[in-house]
Amino acid sequence: MLHTAQQQDFRQLARQIKDWARELGFQQTGITDTDLEQAGERLRRWVDQGYHGDMDYMWKHGSKRYRPAELVPGTLRVISVRMDYLPPEDDPVSVQQDPAAAFISRYALGRDYHKLMRKRLQKLAQRMSQAVGEFGYRVFVDSAPVLEKPLAVKAGLGWMGKHTCIVNREAGSWFFLGELYTDLPLPVDPPAKEDHCGRCTACMDICPTRAIVAPWQLDARRCISWLTIELHGSIPVELRPLMGNHIYGCDDCMMACPWNRFATPTPEEDFLPRQGLDRATLLELFHWTEEEFLKRTEGSPIRRIGHERWLRNIAVALGNSGGGKEVMEALQSRLPGASELVAEHVCWALEQLESRS
């Protein structure tokens, strides 16, 4: 049992942690306990239904994902942080509606957020250690079996939208999450109990592939983000025409969310678009050699899919475009020496365009 003086000290430390986090560029910080049993049960049901696709990592760590103290022994509290990433003066809708344009999820237009946020969280931990001495901690940014969204809800950062993204009344949903596990018995913040989605189903209605099969239920196997980023093999033929011009990720559900009218543009220069990716055409990106791809995606999350899947995704988008002589020639030029995966999707795209000509 903590003495009153100790409790007061930890309350003061919690206030300081939030101030330090703000100084480090985090727009919001909350503190929660480690009870995630309900979230763990929801995860089990989701996996049992096969909605995780081939993302075996969602369950292979077992209970470590929803029992933080098993992942990091001694963990008592989780500090959850939010960092906004929407580029200023961005118009994703116009890109999405232009069949010749390449749509890339807004989170991937700039530098990879993982390293940036991890460094900031490490700096936060260093400031904490200067105040209290050595303590047990570990930081995470989508890098380990961590249920970051349920933790964010418990820490009061927002509620779980029907599209399964966290939504905040003042900030919408264009933000990253990060966590700092600690053994300090900090006071916890009230969870975001209210669900402000109400009867709105805008995110479900807009989803091109109907991946949101029910409120708060996402079938990853149909999600364009999974198809373009996580899936290593062939994209199911029946889903290809529904993918439009999306070549890396999909923000359709978030663009449709009314709460995103309150989203604040990011102040982080590292999150601003690089290599003209916010206005690039499909043909321009399809012509990138593997060397160009690696050079231009250096420091970007896009690099993780590799050049082969990059071409696969763009081939599908070109098959969904208006076509034209230049598009047909570009697709045909990729066939000599193409891998089996790329050739399959290029041939599909050519068939699509020929059938409409």
Structure overview:
With 357 residues, this protein is of the alpha+beta class. The protein folds into 2 domains: 4-87 and 111-182, no CATH class; 202-356, no CATH class. 39% of the residues lie in helices and 11% in strands. The chain contains 14 helices and 10 strands. The chain has a 4-stranded antiparallel β-sheet, sandwiched between helices. It has a two-stranded parallel sheet with strand order 3-10. Strands 5-6 form a two-stranded antiparallel ribbon. 40% of the residues are buried. The model has no long low-confidence stretch (mean pLDDT 94).
SSE diagram, text form:
Elements: H1 4-23, E1 28-32, H2 37-48, H3 68-71, E2 77-84, H4 92-96, E3 103-104, H5 113-132, E4 137-140, H6 148-154, E5 159-160, E6 166-167, E7 175-182, H7 202-206, E8 212-214, E9 217-218, H8 224-230, E10 246-248, H9 252-256, H10 282-286, H11 290-296, H12 306-319, H13 325-334, H14 340-356
Parallel strand pairs: 3-10
Antiparallel strand pairs: 1-2, 2-7, 4-7, 5-6, 8-9
Features:
single chain, 357 residues, alpha+beta, 4-stranded antiparallel beta sheet, 14 helices, 39% helix, elongated
Describe the structure in brief:
This protein is α+β, with helices and mostly antiparallel strands and 357 residues long. Helices cover 39% and strands 11% of the residues.
Rounded Rg: 22 Å
**Count of helical regions:** 14
Query: What is the CA–CA distance across the termini?
Result: 76 Å
Number of domains: 2
Number of strands: 10
Going across the major beta sheet, what is the strand order?
1-2-7-4
Mean pLDDT: 94
**What kind of sheet is the major sheet?**
4 strands, antiparallel
What share of residues are in beta strands?
A: 5-15%
The shape is elongated
State the secondary-structure class: alpha+beta
Uncertain runs are none
SSE order: HEHHEHEHEHEEEHEEHEHHHHHH
Helical coverage, percent range: 25-40%
